């Protein structure tokens, strides 16, 4: 196949925008990139690796960034940047926190958050130290018809020093210097070092919004920061995606924990106060219904507040499962308890070779070990919770799941 690329003005700046290449990218969405890489480049005047990256990155954007995916003349960065950027769902949530005339994003990246901030704030400044990414994002905002975002290339700390007026918001998404997944990290280990620069930031604004990875411990973050007013714990389809730290200059009151689980059927909200003492928590043996909080609430640690707010009883102080005799709406999964059996060899024989969904809460053995020990397969319609009751007995709750309406 011979290439007969005709470059328009935009494509002169980046050849992947040529119509033939754009059609080729669209036709290969979802393709196996490894196999495609073995084929001959049909556009020898353009980097084959860059075309393959556009296919991979755009494929990744289909569900995560539908606005970008469905727009024309969009240029994508490396696929890893798409994996690390906010989704449109979480960016929309963030835009509901901010308001006013001006916001500066000190760690602009691919610009998804800023696209949504621009719907709530009149003027947004996108700072990005990588000149290639800054140019790419500027082009994409033009392609998306956004003219209220100014893209500035350079070190955000130095850029902030040049802005004379006070800003309504500063937004920061600091990146970890070390990318060892699973390891505990501190905010002081990130770039920019927010705890170190906090006083400087408050010279330019009274309101900060800081995004961190969900692995950051809440108590650790609170100990490093000051003026924390709200902490938003954001989950998508029951997977915590990010923590949002809302700081207000001079604030030293109680910290509000705001959890949200964004699902295809709606949003599950819950609000509590950090380390609030709850006096009226009740405990009970399992009743007719069982409740498991969503992952955002689990991250918040608001286990007593859940019991008090929804008038459900805890099975055990550390089990984080709740029960009631009457079915209620609940921010998490709901089950009808079919039977309760003790965790004993005699009782476990009934599960051998069967398909069962297993969850453990406050239980000495892991799901993997339980399956291996008792020869239980994964799947099926039954849900079994291996847990500890209020009398410290090890029990199994055999349940059927109730769909949320």
UniProtKB/TrEMBL annotation:
Does this entry carry the keyword Methyltransferase?
yes
Output one GO BP term: methylation
Which parts of the sequence belong to the PG-1098 ferredoxin-like domain? 289-331
Q: Which residues form a coiled coil?
A: none
Record flagged with keyword Acetylation: no
What keywords is this UniProt entry annotated with? Answer: Methyltransferase, Transferase
Q: Where are the transmembrane segments?
A: none
* A Pfam family of this chain: Thump_like
GO terms (molecular function) for this protein are: methyltransferase activity
Q: Which residues form the THUMP-like domain?
A: 332-401
- Protein name, as recorded: SAM-dependent methyltransferase
Task: Say which species the protein is native to.
Answer: Flavobacterium kingsejongi
